[in-house]
Amino acid sequence: MKRKLLLTVCALACTNAVFAQRPDNYKPDNPNVTLTQTNLPIVFIDVAGKQIDRKEKITAKVKIIDNGKGKLNYADTVTHKNQRIDYEGYVALRYRGNSSFTSSDKKPYSIRTLDKPLEQGGKKKNVSILGMGKDNDWALLAPYSDKSMIRDILSFTLARPYFEYVPHTRLCEVILDETYYGVYIMSERVGKGKNRLNLPSPGTQGDALTGGYLLEVDRADETVYTSKHHPYKEYGVEATDKYIYYQSKSMDWEEMTTEQRSYIEGRIDEMEAAFAAPNYTDPNMGYRKYIDVTSFIDYQLSTEFAHNNDGYRLSTNLYKRRDSENGRFKTSLWDMNIAFGNVDYYNGWRTDTWVYNLNKEIYQQDNNLVPFYWQRLQNDPEYIKELKERWKKYREEAYSDAHITQVIDSLTHLLNDYGAQQRNSQAWPRWGKYVWPNKFVANSYDEEIAYIKQWITRRLAFMDKKLLNKHPETEPNIITVAMKASWNADVVAEKEPVSNALNSGLDHAGWALYTETLQEDGGLPADGIVISRQGITYQLANFERNNALKLNNSNQTYTLQPEKEVQTDRIYILSISANGKSALNVKVNYTDGTASTTHFDIADWFSDLPAGDEAVYGLGRVSQAGAFDGRAQFRLFENEMATNKHKKIASITFTNTANGTCPTILGVSVKGDETTKIDRTTVRKQVKSIYTIDGRQVEQLQKGINLVRYTDGTVSKMLVK
Q: Are strands 85-95 and 109-114 parallel, antiparallel or unpaired?
């Protein structure tokens, strides 16, 4: 049995070794692209035809041309012989990365700068590259699945003001053995160097023994320390067949002395034991004794903003300084290329879920889960309070809408202005083609950037709502029209059993919507307030009664009647369509017998990705038997209709003009002002949430001062004696 296992391991090793190298060094699809001039630095790599390997380093010569900001760099160094050479010397070169190597035709590189060739006993040499601090450990990242080529840089740039250290980067173009290889990212690597984390080598006793150490939560594909605790598959329930692994990055575990290894393993144990303890939130005896809370908050916010599916569980750095220098564990960032909606598994494209909750979805499919202590943090009210305060600061500063847009635009201009991204696309033609793990397959660079911007807008709206209780900006004076008892279907489940909470489905199979009281993921707000992407507010009808107008059959007609008289210059209609695209005729009937008419289509409620024209995207569905679909990829639509503001609306008639589809109306809102004669009491005012004076949310009024937030957005103080 042992022999068979050994042979299997050897076979796999040989397969990986063969896969990890190729005599042509993975030349681009089009190896004939010519680089003449560029606004990006040019990195020349000369391996003299030698084969680059994934494990073993080879000696290469590197020369970097960078004439400075605002100046062009030329690939013809003979004609342009007076260019500024940023760096020229020997490096130890090999391929790097896990999925970024195996799933990418365009390979990333690890670079160690040397004082002389390896064959002559070359040693590491600290150098400055492209204005970045001196070190010897560099990465040439190869954006491939990230067709925008900016996801890593965007994440690092936005996060840098808040972390002690985040890698610096420079976009560049690479020529290897006279072949153009495309756009790369020259990047610092998270390390202990003076210009990186600035960690001293640990000693063997006293304070020197306590730091510095650089660890990484990752796979067990090298020597690791295995946690004594298991990750949760759901809160408080351990996945006992899964493990948390710590790699050592400042030195190999085998290189540590017995004292050093015993110390840092013990420190990990103590930290995790503090998190697992019943009194883990105790400010003196709990987890705060072992981690820098602000650093963990910064990591969480950066990871969640990008919805990095690898976050927390892979490539997650933890470093520790000496106890005399605040020896609590801190974090940094790395590897964000399959973030910002660029992943088609584990719901990684979603904008309305939290990555720290990923385990309950993936624990049966993946061995690397989010460590349990991240879920523990979410159940500490004080931590959440600090998290919300920190996010507010982020949104006022580096993560403001304007600054995010500015960073994206500056990076895309850099790549567009002198043709860098176009040359990269010529070398690696991938527009309109799926590259693992793309969720959205763009047909052009502009489409890819538009997708990222749209994705970020939705992500920010979700995080602002959850962390700041802030809804998207709404149109002023939008009033939901309360209807007389003319809704004909209850299509929203608000309680269990679901069969008792519904009297109809939205489609022929009986699927319906549900509220967040049943399941937060994909649920409608429990208070029934829906704000569309366009900023229009709708107060949905009472979920315990009929709350929708459903038109099952072709040419079926139904009329809604407002409870109060309405005069307005436009109405907004919130709708959904199942079983395909629906078509509706809409007729607004005035009290004088005249009418206004229009026609509009409603796209099918399911879409793999948001198209951008939805009112709401990311809803789930539930069967009348109580089974949840599991996909939160359903959507609502909004249509606007002009009306005569000088006339009173008596009713609104809807006619289904399509065959086999199921259009449903969920709400009607109108534009209101002092002249519209709309009674604003048509919007229900209910208590939405209650907070203590220190910001802690509670279920009911407490003794002392309470802050009561209503569904209309108003807040009042209540004193309970």
A: antiparallel
Cα–Cα dist 616/634, whole Å: 8
Per-residue pLDDT tens digits for 685-701: 455 666 665 556 666 55
DSSP-based three-state secondary structure for 572: strand
Q: Does domain 478-671 have CATH number 2.60.120?
A: yes
User: The pTM is what?
Assistant: 0.80
Residue 29, phi-psi category: left (phi > 0), alpha (psi -120 to 50), beta (remainder): alpha
Residue type, 632: A
Q: What end-to-end distance do the CA atoms of the chain give, in Å?
A: 75
Compute the C-alpha angle 136/141/145, nearest 5°. Answer: 165
Beta-carbon count within 10 A of 526 CB: 16
Are 66 and 84 within 8 A, CB to CB?
Answer: yes
Token readout for 600 is 């509009």
Residue 238: CA count within 13 A, CB half-sphere: 11
pLDDT at 146: 98
Contacts of 190 (CB under 8 A, 6+ apart): 165, 167, 196, 197, 214, 249, 317, 332, 333, 334
Domain ranges of the chain: 37-188, 209-399, 478-671, 687-720
Rounded CA-CA distance 414/320 in Å is 37
In angstroms, what is the C-alpha Rg of the chain? 29
**35 with 423: CB under 8 angstroms?**
yes
The string of pLDDT tens digits covering residues 188-199 is 999 999 999 999
Between CA 514 and CA 623 the distance in angstroms is: 10
Query: At a CB cut-off of 8 Å and minimum separation 6, what does 610 contact?
Result: 454, 458, 617, 618, 635
